[in-house]
Amino acid sequence: MERDLLKTPIEFLKGVGPAKADALKTEMGIHTFEDLLHTYPFRYIDRSKFYTVNELQSAAAEVQLRGRITSMQEIGAARKKRLVAQFEDATGRVELVWFKGAQWIAKSLQMGKEYVLFGKPNYFKGKYSFPHPELELAEDFTKSPIQGLQPVYNSTEKLTNKGLNARGISKLTRVLLPQVKGLIRENLPSRILEHYKWPSREAALFEVHFPQSLERLEIARNRLKFEEFYFIQIALLLQKDLKTKQTPGQVFGEVGDTFNNFYKNNLPFELTGAQKRVLKEIRSDSRSGKHMNRLVQGDVGSGKTVVALLSMLIAIDNGFQACLMAPTEILAQQHYNGLAELLEGTPVRIALLTGSTKTARRKEIHADLLNGQLDILVGTHALIEPTVKFRNLGLAVIDEQHRFGVAQRAKLWKKNTIPPHILIMTATPIPRTLAMSLYGDLDISVIDELPPGRQPIKTVHRYDSNRLQVFGFMKDEIAKGRQCYVVYPLIEESSTMDYKDLEDGYESICREFPRPEYQVSIVHGRMKAEDKDAEMQRFAKGETQIMVATTVIEVGVNVPNASLMIIESSERFGLSQLHQLRGRVGRGAEQSYCILMTGNKLSNEAKTRLETMVRTNDGFEIADVDLQLRGPGDLMGTRQSGMLDLKIANLSKDGQLLQLARKEAEGLLQEDPRLEKPEHAQTRTFFVAQNKGKVHWSKIS
Ligand code: ADP
Ligand code: MG
């Protein structure tokens, strides 16, 4: 009965009617009373505060003044007629302007009476003017409901035309709330409400629509944000739980000679604390008998590869094979070279399989995989083709996760009867909050420490007009024996204009850095794989000093002697891409530099990106800025998660509440995995209703 009222179609709300109802449905997705209840104001205007004229500032948002109209005048001819009034308080005077409805307004305003004015001032030639201000007689204002905090709701043009602007929607909530009073059920365990001193669900909803004070509003909003995160986390955790229960994992029971000998004799450095910790986490997963699905996040250069290798060695010690999949041919090749070098002198057998592997070699590899002659296979997407069959695949490592989809992960699963453990390594610094919510079904490890002796990269922003200076700096660095990258944007592989930029750039660099003193390499996506590879190898061996390239070198490429990264037209790159590119330098002991080149004209957003890059080397901080600039959907290139249409919480601002929600959701499910205890009944009811129709949760309903 109670529920039914909340489910009432919106057209039955007083003041709505069929036409408005239609618009509410199509424009805002508001179908029922309940939907309106959960349409939250996106901001509030504080109408408890009054300004005086001499306090106005040129960039001020909406302000509220108290004063009198001292004169009024209609200006201009017929069509362009406007009404101009002078409005004064004890400290000064402003102008009020109406371009529409001048006559009617002139008639309704009373000279000399005290008004409360609300509006956004324009500043022009030393004077403030308010176009179309809201005015209310001061004596009425004290009785009106708009004192104090006034909620502002989203609206659309279509809704506004139907009489539902932000204020109109506010009016509807005012009609609705008294009707549903006493009917809104709690959905959080009372223990949580008590512990965080949060109001009931109903009180919070009332506060959000009818704020009583800023403090109470803040607390109410926090409660609702928490609630939103909490139920999503419960869903993710249950899903993860079901997955691990349904999926047995290979057991890597022991660490044997392959690992131990490598660790003792081949590992060229001491692992960092973070690497050791992550390795331990992988170790304990893979021994547990449960299926591992782990994401390893580590900033560029944090040493993820060696962690992957050591994990693969544990698989081998337990009679399994392992594979490592990279997103590009160059990266796969580099991984293969790097791993093969590290493994020299060990009995571990490793091979490379990519799109350009010759048929004969491919056949050999297929055969060796099946009869167990191969321990590690490195490659690109070619790895997941159905023709590639392993004798006993135990671990699949995916480097640079963001390029692979869930579907591809699923294909890897099928490569063994018991699916291989999955280790995903990403340097895309996904903010922790986002990772937690998007990959709630994965476990997350973070390598949050760089190998010792690395100096932070110095980053500067230079305009194209300073190019000669930049060339001079390149020469100095090369004279010290270092190497440089010069990277051009290639937004679309096919864009001829971008290639022209690259070619022009290459030519001007060849002019500035002539042979035989200098050798210049070039790598781009239109070259054949083997040519690209040959050029990369020349640069890696130090035979060329300058590498002119497109973003094909973005991920993973490792040339420690390169200490200077110049990014051309850097305003065209996104933040995470800039950070990835910069990560190609700073890999050796030498001081490294990154120069961000741009033209003179920059958008505000581009400026923020560049400033962020100059200010910090911290991938997580950069990711947070990126999240704020672009929003989560864009960031991940995916909209598959419910986290992306949050109603009140904000991923980039409410990370702490998300963490809290995660912790509480974990606690809840630990204590009561199926929400069967009476004190969780209301939580369970709400959860089941919210997740109706989603197969995964059926287990607990
Ligand atoms: P990423 O995490 O970006 O994939 P890599 O695995 O390519 O980083 O490692 C970057 C560089 O750091 C490599 O040259 C690697 O050999 C080196 N490296 C990794 N771990 C350590 C360590 N513990 N001490 C010193 N150097 C290390
Ligand atoms: Mg890497």
UniProtKB/TrEMBL annotation:
It holds the Pfam family RecG_wedge. The keyword DNA-binding applies. CDD domains: DEXHc_RecG, RecG_wedge_OBF. PROSITE patterns: HELICASE_ATP_BIND_1, HELICASE_CTER. Keywords: ATP-binding, DNA damage, DNA recombination, DNA repair, DNA-binding, Helicase, Hydrolase, Isomerase, Nucleotide-binding. GO terms for molecular function: 3'-5' DNA helicase activity; ATP binding; DNA binding; hydrolase activity. GO terms for biological process: DNA recombination; DNA repair. Residues 466-633 form the Helicase C-terminal domain. It catalyses: Couples ATP hydrolysis with the unwinding of duplex DNA by translocating in the 3'-5' direction; ATP + H2O = ADP + phosphate + H(+). Residues 285-447 form the Helicase ATP-binding domain. Its EC number is 5.6.2.4. Plays a critical role in recombination and DNA repair. Helps process Holliday junction intermediates to mature products by catalyzing branch migration. Has replication fork regression activity, unwinds stalled or blocked replication forks to make a HJ that can be resolved. Has a DNA unwinding activity characteristic of a DNA helicase with 3'-5' polarity. Belongs to the helicase family. RecG subfamily. This is ATP-dependent DNA helicase RecG. It comes from Phaeocystidibacter marisrubri.
